[in-house]
Amino acid sequence: MDDNCIFCKIVAGQIPCHKLYEDGRVLAFLDVGPLSPGHTLVIPKHHAVTLDDLPDEDAAAIGAALPKLVKAVKSATGTQACNVLQNNGEIAGQVVMHVHFHIIPKPAADAQADAGAAGTGLGIGWPAGKLDDATAGELVKKITVALD
Ligand code: DGP
Fold this sequence. Notes:
Layout: H1 6-11, E1 19-22, E2 26-30, E3 40-44, H2 56-77, E4 81-85, E5 101-106, H3 133-147
Antiparallel strand pairs: 1-2, 2-3, 3-5, 4-5
The structure holds 2'-deoxyguanosine-5'-monophosphate.
């Protein structure tokens, strides 16, 4: 536990939350600033700042919990779609420095009064480039070496 971490305090019961699910390694609760109704946070109980710092056992537990939470959140909110988002690092939009996955229900287009307005789910900018073979080859080499 990190004494300065708000999510560790939630895990410890020192700060209240609207709890949805708990097991030995994972806690899920409603986000206080929902992008849409049912916006859920899924966190490891173990304190790690970013995903690459998370021990395998905690990562596996999160991986097992996510599909059932996605299913339950979609069912309960009557949505057909959702975004699962995980921000790593401040520059990537991480505000709370304890690993967490967002489950953000995406209401159907006809249910969105005004896309981008509060409650309409995640708005995504997707500034796609085009992958060329030379760059791909370099990246595959570097990343596969980094995986060893
Ligand atoms: P991120 O930008 O990925 O670090 O998102 C952090 C999220 O955590 C943000 O959507 C708001 C939510 N949040 C922050 N503090 C609290 C809290 O005390 N309780 C709950 N339930 N959610 C919180």
